[in-house]
Every structure is written in C-alpha cells, then in structure tokens.
Amino acid sequence: MMLNQDLHIHTTYSTGDSAIVPEQTVALVASVKHAGIIGISDHFEYLLGGFFDGYAREVRGAGLKVGTEVDGHEWAKEATKYDFDYYIVHCRDRDADYRCLETLLTTGMPVIVAHPNAFDTDLKRVPSECLIEINNRYVWRTDWKKYYTPHKDRFKFVIGSDAHQPNWLGQSMAQYAAVQLGIEEHLVF
Questions:
Q1: What distance in Å separates the CA atoms of residue 88 and residue 69, rounded to the nearest whole number?
Q2: N or C: at which end does the chain have fewer Cβ atoms within 10 angstroms?
Q3: Contacts of 74 by beta carbon, 8 Å cutoff, 6+ apart
Q4: Cβ-based neighbours of 178, under 8 Å, separated by 6 or more
C-alpha cells in the first residue's frame, strides 16, 4: 500500500546523525516510491558549509520535495535564508523555540512541528498555522491519546516516518494513532 505522503525522511546528507546508514541515499528513497508525495528533510546544520546547493539539486532532481529538520531556535533564522519547500522543526518547551516557529512561518513555507510529544512541546503555545506531526518513530513513547486529543480540532496533522534507514520507511504506528484519534492526515502538497 502506497502512503499519501512522507515528508520526514533523512539521508546520508545528515552526516552527523549516527542513526543514518550508508544505504539511506536520496536515490534509494526515490526508487522505493513508498508514498505519493515524498520529501527529504535532512538536518539543517549538516547542509551548511556549501552542501545545500548539491542537496537541493539532488533532491529536486529525484522529483522529491526539499525540506529540512531545524533543531530549534538556534538554527531557525539561518534556515530562512535557503530555498526549502517546507520545514520540520524541533520545538522544545522553551520560549525561544516557540518564537522560532513564528520566524519560520514568515517564509510562507509549511512549518511542521516534529514529534512534539517527545519534546514536551506545549501545543497551546504553538501557532495554529503550524502543522503537527504524528511521527512513526516517537508516537508510541508517550501517552499519545492524552497528548494529542485536546488539540485535534485546532491543528492540521501530518503523518511522518522519520526514516533514517530503508527499513524505517513506513508509518504504521503513526497511522494507527491517527485513526484512533480520529485525525485525518493533511496533505501538505
């Protein structure tokens, strides 16, 4: 069964992420075609130093969306200077991280709050224009029903795999949680 979309996928461009395996290339993800809409969202800090142009060229050349995973406020302003199709954002329960969501929203690109239940993100403080991710990698680590239920009418939700390895390309747990919550997936593109 093909997924509707998967925008939270990492590749070997995330060079400092120890969970990435050498086989997790842009070409491999593109060839698997596990979703109708696929985006690569490698960690922003690893795309600096001249790597962004090659990254964007390779991802777009494979017919995929170019995203990035921004690790909180420390990287948000710098990330707005690059040509991304969307942002995946770590928003820890810190004032500066909630403010960085506003900064990223000014770009007009979709802003997806990544695995908020794992970062104790206070969804009451997240702008309603943000999309909230239910993530296959982290959803089961918390009481997701208790966490997401109060907010399911306030936000649009995106389901993601957070794949770092080929065998992680899937969303079974995240999709299960969405069905249990009565949440319909929002298609970003």
A1: 5
A2: N
A3: none
A4: 134, 157, 159, 184, 185
What are the phi and psi torsion angles at 113 (to 5°)?
Answer: -80, 115
How many other C-beta atoms are found inside a 10 Å radius of the C-beta of residue 4? 15
**Burial bucket for residue 148 (CB in 10 Å: 0-12, 13-18, 19+):** buried
Q: How many helices (H) and strands (E) does the chain have?
A: 6, 7
Q: What length is written for the chain?
A: 189
At 141 the pLDDT is: 87
Specify the 3-state DSSP secondary structure of 69.
Answer: strand
Strands 111-113 and 3-6: unpaired
Q: Which residues pair with 88 in a beta bridge?
A: 69, 112
Which pLDDT value is given to residue 128?
98
pTM value is 0.97
- Write out the H or E segment, with its range, that includes residue 181: helix 172-181
Cβ contacts of 45 within 8 Å, gap of 6 or more: 16, 71, 75
pLDDT at 1 over 70: no
> How many Å apart are CA 150 and CA 7, to the nearest integer?
25
